[in-house]
Automatic annotation (TrEMBL):
GO terms for molecular function: DNA-binding transcription factor activity. Residues 13-146 form the Cyclic nucleotide-binding domain. One of its GO terms (cellular component) is cytosol. This is Putative transcriptional regulator, Crp/Fnr family. It comes from Pseudodesulfovibrio mercurii.
Length: 176
Protein backbone atom coordinates (compact mmCIF):
# COMPACT_ATOMS: atom_id res chain seq x y z
CA UNK A 1 0.00 0.00 0.00
CA UNK A 2 1.43 3.38 -0.95
CA UNK A 3 0.48 5.95 1.68
CA UNK A 4 3.37 8.44 1.81
CA UNK A 5 1.31 11.21 3.45
CA UNK A 6 0.51 9.20 6.60
CA UNK A 7 2.65 9.88 9.67
CA UNK A 8 2.68 6.29 10.92
CA UNK A 9 5.06 7.12 13.78
CA UNK A 10 2.52 9.58 15.25
CA UNK A 11 -0.17 6.89 15.53
CA UNK A 12 -0.27 5.61 19.13
CA UNK A 13 -0.79 2.00 18.06
CA UNK A 14 2.60 2.10 16.29
CA UNK A 15 4.45 4.34 18.77
CA UNK A 16 7.20 1.86 19.58
CA UNK A 17 7.38 0.25 16.14
CA UNK A 18 9.78 1.88 13.67
CA UNK A 19 11.78 1.27 10.51
CA UNK A 20 11.66 -2.21 8.97
CA UNK A 21 9.29 -3.45 11.68
CA UNK A 22 6.74 -0.76 10.81
CA UNK A 23 7.15 -1.63 7.13
CA UNK A 24 5.95 -5.15 8.01
CA UNK A 25 2.83 -3.77 9.74
CA UNK A 26 1.72 -1.31 7.04
CA UNK A 27 0.50 -3.91 4.50
CA UNK A 28 -2.25 -5.21 6.82
CA UNK A 29 -3.92 -1.78 6.57
CA UNK A 30 -5.70 -0.16 3.66
CA UNK A 31 -7.04 3.37 3.34
CA UNK A 32 -10.80 3.95 3.26
CA UNK A 33 -12.35 7.33 2.45
CA UNK A 34 -15.87 8.40 3.43
CA UNK A 35 -17.85 11.53 2.63
CA UNK A 36 -19.38 13.71 5.33
CA UNK A 37 -22.48 12.20 6.93
CA UNK A 38 -21.58 8.55 6.29
CA UNK A 39 -21.57 5.90 9.00
CA UNK A 40 -18.24 4.18 9.43
CA UNK A 41 -19.68 1.91 12.14
CA UNK A 42 -23.35 1.35 13.04
CA UNK A 43 -24.35 0.38 16.55
CA UNK A 44 -25.85 -3.11 16.65
CA UNK A 45 -24.29 -4.33 13.41
CA UNK A 46 -21.72 -7.09 13.36
CA UNK A 47 -18.21 -6.18 12.34
CA UNK A 48 -14.64 -7.39 12.28
CA UNK A 49 -12.75 -4.27 11.17
CA UNK A 50 -10.68 -1.80 13.16
CA UNK A 51 -10.21 1.79 11.99
CA UNK A 52 -7.72 4.58 12.69
CA UNK A 53 -8.84 8.10 11.78
CA UNK A 54 -6.01 9.71 9.78
CA UNK A 55 -7.88 12.67 8.31
CA UNK A 56 -11.23 14.28 9.10
CA UNK A 57 -13.66 14.42 12.00
CA UNK A 58 -16.21 11.98 13.42
CA UNK A 59 -18.95 11.88 16.04
CA UNK A 60 -19.52 8.80 18.17
CA UNK A 61 -23.06 8.22 19.44
CA UNK A 62 -24.88 5.54 21.39
CA UNK A 63 -28.56 4.80 21.72
CA UNK A 64 -29.98 5.65 25.14
CA UNK A 65 -32.72 3.06 24.71
CA UNK A 66 -32.53 -0.69 24.23
CA UNK A 67 -33.87 -1.98 20.93
CA UNK A 68 -37.68 -2.10 21.03
CA UNK A 69 -37.89 0.04 24.19
CA UNK A 70 -40.31 2.97 24.15
CA UNK A 71 -40.52 5.54 26.91
CA UNK A 72 -43.46 7.89 26.26
CA UNK A 73 -42.43 10.22 29.08
CA UNK A 74 -38.96 10.67 27.63
CA UNK A 75 -39.09 13.91 25.70
CA UNK A 76 -36.04 14.34 23.51
CA UNK A 77 -35.23 15.12 19.92
CA UNK A 78 -33.01 12.07 19.56
CA UNK A 79 -32.64 8.99 21.74
CA UNK A 80 -28.88 9.02 20.97
CA UNK A 81 -26.16 10.28 23.28
CA UNK A 82 -23.06 11.91 21.83
CA UNK A 83 -20.09 10.17 23.42
CA UNK A 84 -17.34 12.07 21.62
CA UNK A 85 -16.43 14.21 18.65
CA UNK A 86 -12.92 13.43 17.46
CA UNK A 87 -10.52 14.55 14.75
CA UNK A 88 -7.32 13.11 13.37
CA UNK A 89 -5.08 15.03 15.77
CA UNK A 90 -4.67 11.99 18.05
CA UNK A 91 -5.34 9.31 15.40
CA UNK A 92 -8.21 7.72 17.35
CA UNK A 93 -9.00 4.02 16.96
CA UNK A 94 -12.46 2.49 16.50
CA UNK A 95 -13.64 -1.10 16.30
CA UNK A 96 -10.84 -2.86 18.17
CA UNK A 97 -13.32 -4.92 20.18
CA UNK A 98 -15.06 -6.25 17.05
CA UNK A 99 -11.62 -6.98 15.60
CA UNK A 100 -11.05 -9.32 18.54
CA UNK A 101 -14.43 -11.03 18.83
CA UNK A 102 -16.68 -10.23 15.82
CA UNK A 103 -19.42 -9.01 18.15
CA UNK A 104 -21.98 -6.34 17.44
CA UNK A 105 -20.83 -2.75 17.39
CA UNK A 106 -21.43 -0.85 20.64
CA UNK A 107 -21.75 2.65 19.12
CA UNK A 108 -22.18 4.50 15.83
CA UNK A 109 -19.29 6.43 14.30
CA UNK A 110 -20.38 8.99 11.69
CA UNK A 111 -18.16 11.28 9.65
CA UNK A 112 -18.78 15.02 10.06
CA UNK A 113 -16.50 15.99 7.16
CA UNK A 114 -14.85 13.95 4.41
CA UNK A 115 -12.57 11.55 6.28
CA UNK A 116 -9.88 8.92 5.71
CA UNK A 117 -9.16 5.86 7.81
CA UNK A 118 -6.58 3.12 8.02
CA UNK A 119 -8.51 -0.16 8.10
CA UNK A 120 -7.61 -3.72 8.95
CA UNK A 121 -9.85 -6.71 9.49
CA UNK A 122 -9.76 -9.75 11.73
CA UNK A 123 -8.31 -12.08 9.07
CA UNK A 124 -5.41 -9.77 8.12
CA UNK A 125 -4.70 -8.85 11.74
CA UNK A 126 -4.60 -12.41 13.11
CA UNK A 127 -2.69 -13.67 10.07
CA UNK A 128 -0.09 -10.98 10.85
CA UNK A 129 0.05 -12.09 14.51
CA UNK A 130 0.87 -15.62 13.37
CA UNK A 131 3.48 -14.51 10.79
CA UNK A 132 5.15 -11.90 13.03
CA UNK A 133 4.57 -12.99 16.64
CA UNK A 134 7.04 -10.54 18.22
CA UNK A 135 5.51 -7.54 16.44
CA UNK A 136 2.04 -8.95 16.93
CA UNK A 137 2.54 -9.07 20.70
CA UNK A 138 3.53 -5.39 20.67
CA UNK A 139 0.37 -4.43 18.74
CA UNK A 140 -1.76 -6.68 20.91
CA UNK A 141 -0.36 -5.12 24.11
CA UNK A 142 -1.20 -1.62 22.82
CA UNK A 143 -4.76 -2.71 22.02
CA UNK A 144 -5.09 -4.43 25.40
CA UNK A 145 -3.99 -1.25 27.20
CA UNK A 146 -6.53 0.77 25.23
CA UNK A 147 -9.33 -1.67 26.06
CA UNK A 148 -8.34 -1.73 29.74
CA UNK A 149 -8.46 2.09 29.85
CA UNK A 150 -11.90 2.00 28.22
CA UNK A 151 -13.14 -0.51 30.82
CA UNK A 152 -11.82 1.66 33.67
CA UNK A 153 -13.55 4.74 32.23
CA UNK A 154 -16.78 2.81 31.72
CA UNK A 155 -16.66 1.45 35.28
CA UNK A 156 -16.37 5.02 36.56
CA UNK A 157 -19.37 6.06 34.48
CA UNK A 158 -21.43 3.12 35.78
CA UNK A 159 -20.68 4.16 39.37
CA UNK A 160 -21.74 7.75 38.62
CA UNK A 161 -24.96 6.62 36.92
CA UNK A 162 -25.80 4.14 39.69
CA UNK A 163 -25.27 6.84 42.32
CA UNK A 164 -27.40 9.34 40.39
CA UNK A 165 -30.17 6.77 39.96
CA UNK A 166 -30.10 5.84 43.65
CA UNK A 167 -30.34 9.52 44.63
CA UNK A 168 -33.18 10.15 42.19
CA UNK A 169 -35.10 7.11 43.43
CA UNK A 170 -34.62 8.06 47.07
CA UNK A 171 -35.96 11.58 46.37
CA UNK A 172 -38.89 10.17 44.42
CA UNK A 173 -39.67 7.77 47.27
CA UNK A 174 -39.76 10.59 49.85
CA UNK A 175 -42.03 12.71 47.61
CA UNK A 176 -44.44 9.91 46.82
Amino acid sequence: MNTPDIDWAAITLFADITGPALDKVKPIFEVRTLDAGEDLIREGEEGDEMFILIEGRVRITKSMLLEGMHLPLLEMDSPRKVLATLDQSEYPLFGEIALMDRETRSATVRTLVPSRFLVTDRLRFFDFLEREPALGVRLFKRLARRMAATIRRTNGEVVKLSTALALALSRYKTLG
